[in-house]
C-alpha cells in the first residue's frame, strides 16, 4: 500500500521554497537538463558526459598525488568548471596506492564518476588498477614505463628534469604540463595555476612543465566554460573559515583523520585570524579546555573523528548541564573503532545525536558540501553561544578532505549575536530561570558577583542541589531552550529540496550524498530531500519537503540506514534504502543504477 | 566582591573532623591575605573535580567551575588560556587527579601553565565510601580489596619532579601554619605549582597518629636544587615507614605557557569578513 506523506493539515498547500533552496533546485535543473549528454560513447568506465570532464591522478603515497590532483582541480577551475576532487589513500606515509579523481562540470559535482577522461599515472600500478575506467577517447599520461601501452603518453620526466637541472620532486610539474598540453589548456592558465599553488621555484617548475606541454599535441580538448571561476577549497578549509566567521578564538584538536587538515589550516593561520590553536594531550583534554575557554568568554571549537569523539562524550554531557557553548567538528570515517582510518562513512549520526548521558539540547548539523560546511560552521558557533549548548558539525571524509568549488554568493551572511547580557540591577545568577530557558551569560571577573558553573544539578546561582523541585525546573529550562532553538532552526533552511520538487518519489539523503543525489534526482526527475539539521529535528521544514511524497528511497553510506531510523520516528518510513558501507563514496554510475532498480 | 563574604549559603556536609576543613580555612585565609596584597578577589577561579574535596566549590563564594572527576586541570588550562589575568586554582583529590586524569597533571607540569593544583590526598575514596586510591599503601584493606591492595602506591613528588613541575610542595592538614604557607607560596608562584596535601579522612583512613609521629619540615634554602629534591622526594615513598618531609620540595621559574601564547587582539567582524574574502579570492 502506498503512503502519502503530508505536511500538517492546513499548511500542506503552502510550499516553502526558501531562496537558497530555489537556487539549488533551479541550478540543478539548469545543469543536468540544460545540457546534452550522449549515450553512445559507452566504453569501459561508462558514459562520457559532454560539458564535463573527469581526471584521475594516481601514484604511491609520497608521490604528491594530492597536490597534483589539486593542480588539476585548479586548472579545471580556471577554465570555468565547478570542480570536486575525491582523494582515496590508505593509512600510510610512504608507499601504497593513492589516487585522486577530479570531476569538473557546470555545477559543483558532489561526487565523482567511475569513468574518467584522463589518467595521470605517476606509476605503473595506477595503470594496472585504473585503466579500465578510461572512457572512449580518454587519454593516459604516464610517468611510468608504458611499454605495451601504445595509446599512452609517456612523459620523459627523467630527460626533462636533467635538461632543466631540476630535482626529482619537480617530476609532477612535467606530468601536469603534459596533461595541459594534451587537454589543449592554454599556457597562460597553466602559469596562473602554478603561481597559485607552487610554494617555491615557480619558474623552474614552469620550465619543466613547459617542456612536457610543448611535447604534446591536443588529444582531448577540455573546452573552457563561459562561467566565471570561483574559489576551490577543501571542506576542512571551508569549515575553518566558517568557524572564524563565527568568532572563533581558540581551536583545540588532537590529530585524527579526517579533520587533521582543519587543525593544520587553522594552525597555519593563527596570526592572520588572530586565534590560537592548541594540540593537547588527548581528546578529553581538548574538549575540557574548550569548555574552560567558554566559561571564561572565549569562543572555542574542537575537531575530531568518531574515536576521539567517544572520548569527548562525558564532556558533551557536562556542556549540556553546565550550559557551556562548544562547537565540535566530528568528521566521520569508517568504523567501528579504528575502522578504515582514511576512508569515509556516514555511520556516526546516532553517536552525534545521543552522545553524553542525560537529556539536554544540542545542535547537530550535517553539511552536504563545502558551501554548507562553511555556512553551518558559522551557524553552529552562533547558535551554540546563543543557546549555551554543544553544537556538533557532522561532515564526513568526502567533505573534509575533498575539494569543492565554492561560490561565496551561496554562503549566506550569518549575524553573530552576542550572548544574552544580564540586567545590571539584579544580582548575577549564571542559571537564572527565564521564560526562554536562556540565562544571561557573563564571564569572570564580575565586580559584584561570582560566576559558578556546575556539572551537578544546581540552583540558579550554580550551587549544587538535590532538591526535586529545582531538578525539575532545571530540566524544564533545558527543554525550553530546545523548543526555542527548534523554531529558530526552521527559519534557517534546515532541509534542502533538489531534483524535481513535484515528484512523488523522494530520494532522502544527508551529508555528502547530497550532491550526487541532487544530480541523479534531476536527471531522473525525482525529488531529493536533504535535512542538514538533524537535532533538534526540523519537523515542520521536513514535513513541508515531504508533502505529496508517496515513496521514499533513502541513500546513505552506512550499513543500517541511520537517517532512515531517525525519520521513521517522525512518521516517514523509507520504502527502500540504498546503502554503501565499504569506505568509498557512491560513484555516479553506481548510484544511478541502484536507484534505477528500486524506483521501478 | 569582598573577602568578608567568602562563605556561601550552602550547608557544609563534610564529616566532623575532616581534613578538608583545614584546607577550606587555609584557602579563605590566603584569599584574604592576597586581597590585602592588592589582588582583586573577582580574578580568582576555583576549579573542583568530583570527590569529597570538590564540595569546597559549593561552600565558598568565589568564581568556580565544578568539573568532572579527574578533569579539573584541562578546564583550568582552558580558563587560563582564555584569560591569563585570572588566578586559577584546581582543588582535586588523589582519586580525582592521580587515578582518573593523571595525564592532565603531567602535561600541565610539562607546559608550565600558571595554574595551581592542590591534591587533597586522603589516600582513600571518601565519596564512594572507602576504596583504595593510587596513593593507598600496599595491603590497604579497601572495600573493593578486602584482602588488601596488591599494588604499591605512586609517589606524586617524584612524578611531578620528572614531569617538570616548577613548584612542588607537600603539606599536612593537622599542621595548619605549614599548610597555609605552602598553599600561599603555590598560589603566588608564577608558573605551574603543585601541592600534595596529606589530608585526614576521619571516617575511612584516619592516619593522624601515623603522620604525627613522622612528619618534619624540609629545609627550603635548597629548593632550587633538582637533584637534592629528587633525594628528598624518595625519602618517603608513601608506603615505607620513614620520616615524611613537609614544605616546599622544589621551586624554579621558567617562561609560562601563557607567556608563550599571548592572547591576540581579536578581529572585528568586518576584518574577519575581509580576511575570509581575501583567502577565497586567492583560491579562485
What's the quick description here?
The complex is a heterodimer of chains A (600) and B (284). Chain A has 600 residues and is an alpha/beta fold. Chain A has 4 domains: 19-30 and 494-599, Rossmann fold (3-Layer(aba) Sandwich); 52-215, Pyruvate-ferredoxin Oxidoreductase, domain 3 (3-Layer(aba) Sandwich), CATH 3.40.920.10; 232-410, Thiamin diphosphate (ThDP)-binding fold, Pyr/PP domains (Rossmann fold); 420-492, no CATH class.
Report what the structure shows.
Chain A is an alpha/beta fold and 600 residues long. With 284 residues, chain B is α/β, with parallel strands linked by helices. Chain B has a single domain, classed as Rossmann fold, CATH 3.40.50. Chain B is globular.
Give the second-level CATH assignment, the architecture of chain B: 3-Layer(aba) Sandwich
Biggest chain contact: A-B, 65 and 57 residues
Q: What best-fitting shape of chain A do the alpha-carbon axes yield?
A: globular
Give the termini distance of chain A in whole angstroms.
15 Å
The secondary structure category of chain A is: alpha/beta
**Which architecture of the largest domain in chain A does the CATH hierarchy give at level 2?**
3-Layer(aba) Sandwich
Spell out the key features of this protein.
heterodimer, A: 600 residues, alpha/beta, Rossmann fold, Pyruvate-ferredoxin Oxidoreductase, domain 3, 4 domains, B: alpha/beta, 11 helices
Amino acid at each position: 500500500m502506498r503512503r502519502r506523506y503530508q505536511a500538517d493539515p492546513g499548511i500542506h498547500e503552502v510550499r516553502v521554497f526558501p531562496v537558497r533552496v530555489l537556487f539549488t533546485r533551479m541550478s540543478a535543473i539548469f545543469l543536468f537538463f540544460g545540457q546534452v549528454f550522449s549515450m553512445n560513447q559507452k566504453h569501459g568506465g561508462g558514459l562520457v558526459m559532454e560539458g564535463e570532464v573527469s581526471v584521475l591522478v594516481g601514484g604511491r603515497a609520497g608521490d604528491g598525488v594530492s597536490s597534483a590532483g589539486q593542480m588539476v582541480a585548479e586548472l579545471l577551475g580556471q577554465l570555468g568548471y565547478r570542480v570536486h576532487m575525491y582523494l582515496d589513500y590508505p593509512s600510510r606515509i610512504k608507499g601504497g596506492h593513492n589516487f585522486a579523481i577530479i570531476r569538473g562540470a557546470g555545477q559543483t559535482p558532489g561526487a565523482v564518476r567511475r569513468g574518467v577522461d584522463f589518467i595521470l599515472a605517476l606509476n605503473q600500478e595506477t595503470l594496472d588498477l585504473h585503466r579500465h575506467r578510461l572512457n572512449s577517447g580518454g587519454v593516459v599520461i604516464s610517468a611510468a614505463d608504458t611499454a605495451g601501452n601504445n595509446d599512452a603518453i609517456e612523459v620523459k620526466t627523467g630527460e626533462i628534469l636533467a635538461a632543466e637541472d631540476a630535482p626529482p620532486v619537480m617530476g609532477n610539474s612535467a606530468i601536469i604540463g603534459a596533461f595541459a598540453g594534451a587537454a589543449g589548456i592554454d599556457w597562460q592558465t597553466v602559469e596562473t595555476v602554478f603561481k597559485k599553488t607552487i610554494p617555491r621555484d615557480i619558474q623552474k617548475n614552469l620550465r619543466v612543465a613547459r617542456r612536457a606541454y610543448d611535447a604534446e599535441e591536443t588529444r582531448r580538448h577540455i573546452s573552457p566554460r563561459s562561467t566565471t571561476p570561483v574559489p576551490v577549497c577543501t571542506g576542512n578549509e571551508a569549515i575553518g573559515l566558517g568557524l572564524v566567521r563565527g568568532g572563533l578564538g581558540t581551536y583545540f584538536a588532537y590529530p585524527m583523520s579526517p579533520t587533521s587538515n582543519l587543525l593544520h589550516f587553522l594552525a597555519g593561520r593563527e596570526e592572520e585570524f588572530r586565534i590560537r590553536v592548541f594540540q593537547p594531550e588527548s581528546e578529553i583534554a581538548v574538549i575540557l579546555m574548550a569548555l574552560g575557554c567558554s566559561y571564561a568568554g572565549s569562543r572555542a571549537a574542537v575537531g575530531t573523528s568518531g574515536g576521539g569523539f567517544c572520548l569527548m562524550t562525558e564532556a558533551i554531557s557536562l556542556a549540556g548541564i553546565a550550559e557551556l557553548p562548544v562547537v565540535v567538528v566530528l568528521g566521520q570515517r569508517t568504523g567501528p573503532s579504528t575502522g578504515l582510518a582514511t576512508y569515509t562513512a556516514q555511520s556516526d549520526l546516532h553517536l552525534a545525536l545521543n552522545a553524553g548521558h542525560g537529556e539536554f539540547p544540542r545542535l547537530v548539523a550535517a553539511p552536504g558540501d563545502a558551501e554548507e560546511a562553511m555556512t553551518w560552521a558559522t551557524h553552529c558557533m552562533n547558535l551554540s553561544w546563543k543557546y549555551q549548548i554543544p553544537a556538533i558539525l557532522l561532515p564526513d571524509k568526502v567533505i573534509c578532505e575533498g575539494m569543492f568549488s565554492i561560490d561565496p554568493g551561496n554562503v549566506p551572511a550569518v549575524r553573530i549575536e552576542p550572548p544574552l547580557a544580564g540586567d545590571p540591577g539584579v544580582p548575577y545568577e549564571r542559571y537564572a530561570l527565564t521564560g526562554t530557558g536562556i540565562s544571561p551569560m557573563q564571564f569572570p571577573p564580575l565586580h559584584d558577583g561570582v560566576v559558578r558553573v556546575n556539572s551537578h544539578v544546581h540552583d540558579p546561582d550554580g550551587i549544587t542541589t538535590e532538591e526535586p523541585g529545582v531538578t525539575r525546573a532545571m530540566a524544564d529550562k533545558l527543554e525550553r531552550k530546545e523548543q526555542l532553538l527548534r523554531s529558530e532552526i526552521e527559519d534557517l533552511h534546515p532541509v534542502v529540496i533538489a531534483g524535481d520538487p513535484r515528484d512523488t518519489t523522494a530520494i532522502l539523503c544527508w551529508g555528502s550524498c547530497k550532491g550526487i543525489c541532487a544530480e541523479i534526482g534531476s536527471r531522473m526527475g525525482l525529488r531529493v530531500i536533504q535535512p542538514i539539521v538533524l537535532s533538534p529535528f526540523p519537523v515542520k521544514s521536513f514535513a513541508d519537503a515531504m508533502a505529496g511524497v508517496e515513496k521514499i528511497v533513502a541513500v546513505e553510506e552506512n550499513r543500517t540506514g541511520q537517517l532512515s531510523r531517525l525519520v521513521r520516528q517522525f512518521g516517514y518510513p523509507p520504502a527502500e534504502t540504498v546503502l554503501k558501507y565499504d569506505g568509498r563514496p557512491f560513484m555516479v554510475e553506481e548510484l544511478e543504477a541502484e536507484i534505477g532498480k528500486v524506483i521501478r | 566582591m569582598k573577602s568578608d563574604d567568602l562563605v556561601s549559603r550552602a550547608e557544609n556536609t563534610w564529616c566532623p573532623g575532616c581534613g578538608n576543613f583545614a584546607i577550606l580555612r587555609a584557602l579563605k585565609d590566603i584569599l584574604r591575605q592576597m586581597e590585602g596584597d592588592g589582588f582583586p578577589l573577582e580574578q580568582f577561579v576555583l576549579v573542583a573535580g568530583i570527590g569529597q574535596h570538590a564540595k569546597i566549590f559549593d561552600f565558598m563564594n568565589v568564581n568556580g567551575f565544578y568539573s568532572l572527576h579527574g578533569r579539573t586541570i584541562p578546564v583550568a588550562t582552558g580558563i587560563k588560556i582564555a584569560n591569563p589575568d585570572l588566578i586559577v586554582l584546581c582543588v582535586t583529590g588523589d582519586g580525582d587527579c592521580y587515578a582518573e586524569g593523571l595525564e592532565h597533571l603531567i602535561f600541565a607540569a610539562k607546559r608550565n601553565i600558571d595554574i595551581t593544583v592542590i591534591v587533597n590526598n586522603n589516600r582513600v575514596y571518601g565519596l564512594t565510601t572507602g576504596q583504595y586510591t593510587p596513593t593507598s599503601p600496599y595491603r590497604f584493606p579497601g572495600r573493593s580489596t578486602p584482602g588488601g591492595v596488591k599494588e604499591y602506591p605512586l609517589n606524586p613528588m617524584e612524578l611531578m619532579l620528572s614531569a617538570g613541575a616548577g613548584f612542588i610542595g607537600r603539606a599536612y592538614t593537622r599542621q595548619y601554619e605549614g599548610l597555609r604557607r605552602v598553599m600561599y607560596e603555590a598560589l603566588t608562584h608564577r608558573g605551574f605549582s603543585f601541592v600534595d596535601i596529606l589530608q585526614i579522612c576521619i571516617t575511612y583512613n584516619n592516619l593522624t597518629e601515623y603522620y604525627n609521629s613522622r612528619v618534619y619540615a624540609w629545609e627550603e634554602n635548597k629548593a632550587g636544587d633538582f637533584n637534592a629534591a629528587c633525594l628528598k622526594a624518595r625519602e618517603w615513598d608513601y608506603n615505607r615507614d620513614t620520616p615524611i618531609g613537609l614544605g616546599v620540595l622544589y621551586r624554579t621559574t621558567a617562561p609560562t605557557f601563557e607567556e608563550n601564547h599571548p592572547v591576540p587582539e581579536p578581529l572585528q567582524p568586518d576584518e574577519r569578513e575581509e580576511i575570509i574574502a581575501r583567502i577565497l579570492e586567492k583560491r579562485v
